[in-house]
Amino acid sequence: MANITFNATLLIYLIATLGYTIYLANRKPIVKSISFFSLGLGLFSHTITICLRSMETGHGPYTTGFEITSFFAWVIVVIFFITEWKYKIKDLGAFVIPVVFLILLYSAFQSREYSLIDESSTMFWLTMHRTLSIIGYAAFAIAFGAAVMYLIQENQVKNKKLGVMYFRMPSLEVLDNLNYKVIAIGFPLFTLGFMTGSIWNVKTDESLFSWDVMRTWPLIAVWLIYCGIFFGRLLVGWRGKKAAQGAILGFVAIIFSYFFHVV
Length: 263
What we know:
This protein is mainly alpha-helical. The protein has helices spanning about 1-25, 30-55, 65-85, 95-110, 120-160, 165-170, 170-205, 215-235, 240-260.
């Protein structure tokens, strides 16, 4: 049953992706409504999928690559709905939902096998590590979408070519503010995820960090990038184009580190 709802979710997210992309071009309210409804239906189906999977495995979506990747996509959609409700940025979906679809599509090719887990104190820290990290990643995905929109707008202003897209997207100030706000939420959560991962590591092999070059160092690189963005804004006023470029670089680093750390 979980496989059926998963496939349905993937299809619905594809419809939502196409809808938000088309809406960016034609701005027809009916297209926006269909896209929003489709995404909501997809989130409902996705939630059912995760619940069914958890009932089947006896644990939450945090042990296998398939579960974690699917959960990653789910959290992005949840944060997207919160962001759209608060900021009313109608075009954000065209830059975020395709990412959701691609992430879930990737999970479709991962193994869905599972095994029973040991419900010990070490499992608690691993669960906290992965959950907090994924929520942080999802916030960074929203920042990525806002950053792409910012650079598009900034390029039009810089070149003094105010095309149709300029008048359809929010102002540079709104996009820059959104970029900062979601990173300000995501960075502390990701940091806590990093810390709980270290605690889990201590409890399992008695070392603070796993110095695996392919698994740990990419995560450190991601943390350093977002640390620079977060404190750069607070301390030296690093905002605008630099912050947007940093958010895009950070999310690319996340995809890279995610591949080696989870898969």
